[in-house]
Amino acid sequence: MKTPLKIRVRGLKKSFGKKVVLDGIDLDLHEGESFVVIGGSGTGKSVLIKCILGLIHPDAGSIKIDGQEIVGLSYTAQQKALDKFGMLFQGGALFDSMTVWENVAFALTHGHGMDEAQAKEIAMEKLQAVDLDESTATIYPAELSGGMQKRVALARAIASNPEVIFFDEPTTGLDPIVSGTINQLIIDSVRRIGASALTITHDIGSLRKIADRVGLLCDGKMIWTGTVAQMDKSKEPHVVQFINGLPEGPFTTG
After folding, report:
1. What does the mean pLDDT of the chain come to?
2. Would you say 138 and 99 are in contact if contact means Cβ atoms under 8 Å apart?
3. pTM assigned to the model
4. Element (H, E) at 144
């Protein structure tokens, strides 16, 4: 039995000049679900997430969060609706001038107005949740490995116990062992706080680990959705080419 919808996207369109990036996207994310969006480079995955986050204004379509339409809302009302979101950016996007714990606590102190002592206590708890010890808290991101930076970014994404977490290429640039660790931490963190997750990735190994359902983007449209098991059995040419990394097929290469 499906849980209630957390995010409902219908007919989402976005163009930049003459380039159509999103051409009528439909997407459903249910409560407690992990949905992974795959597709070739330049197919609009990041633009889709940025539209949902309010970072880009769509040209047309509907985005509902818990049944509330956010397209067309005032900035203040939109940001209030988006307070329930967390985000792990590609590359981590940590602040170099802040210590690790200050990075994790940033949204708590700046977005939620929490006092520093309480925010630091929560930051330390979240660092522990992603298997980082106290000695990490007072150093700076540049002193960490890529894998540790991703852990810090994950701790920041879950700091406010968000209802929805977005993951943008969470394992890019990491070796297979570290990628596997990050995937497991994502699963554990989402389950621990009961969040829904929307991930974009090129990493098929990561997809198989974290996805409940998968959506394939091509030419600005969500051309296929299904479970991982359905993906493996699919005969849809785009799906077959993408998950097997085939050089020839409907996806153009170059």
Report:
1. 88
2. yes
3. 0.87
4. none
